[in-house]
Amino acid sequence: MALRPPAEANEWEPGTKPASAASPTRASSLTGAGFLFVWRKTLPTQAKVDRVAELQEKLENSSIVISTGYSGIGVNQMVNLRRRMRDGGVEFIVVKNNLLALAADGADVPQLKDIIAGQTAIALGYDDAAATAKAVNDAANADGTLAIQGAVVNRGEALSADGVTRLASLPPQPVLVAQLLGNMQAPLYGLASVLNATISSLAYVLQARIGQLEPAEAAE
Predict the structure, then answer these.
(1) Could you read off the pLDDT of 17-36 as tens digits, one per residue?
(2) Burial 192-208 (b: 16+ CB within 10 A, else e)
(3) pTM of the entire structure?
(4) Domain limits at 65?
(5) Do 160 and 183 fall into the same domain?
(6) Among 57, 66, 103, 128, which is least packed, fewest CB within 10 Å?
(7) Element (H or E) spanning 213, and its range?
(8) Cβ–Cβ < 8 Å for 132, 89
(9) pLDDT tens digits along 81-113
């Protein structure tokens, strides 16, 4: 008689020992032919597949993702943290590290895996990276238990926790742009002044020369 696995089995490994009742591995032994098969549930659920796809899309669309550790934070504290983050325009998500690692690979942000450990929550910003860092840093300082672990900016540059703090100290993006334009315009104003002065001097010299030539032409 042919040996067949149970109807619900989706993976069998010959030659392994049956798992104990407390183990998450389910075992079924068939001894008629001297083989022992073990069934394991290894396929991810559709919910996990969807979750990874959702996280991957968020990572791909974000300008900055900040990894934080929230160990020891109570329910009420987490609610307050989410509110502070939301008020600062930041999306704050509690994630499972293994699912986040898969999403990081899918979004081509493998460096994110180096800054996730323990109980992890990520803060996502979709516009001004400095403003996002400031919102997270302010929330962490106010709460006292949220630990910043690092960040990835524009799916490229990785920042340490200190780097996130320094980024948070920068002025908002509109202010930085205004400062940059001001610094660029200052030399242009100086150049324009020099050119105006040079042109004025040249005009004065030409006018003086014309004044010298006019009497000579009249005498002829």
Answers:
(1) 444 444 444 444 444 444 34
(2) eeeeeeeeeeeeeeeee
(3) 0.61
(4) 46-168
(5) no
(6) 57
(7) helix 173-219
(8) yes
(9) 888 889 889 999 999 999 999 999 999 999 999
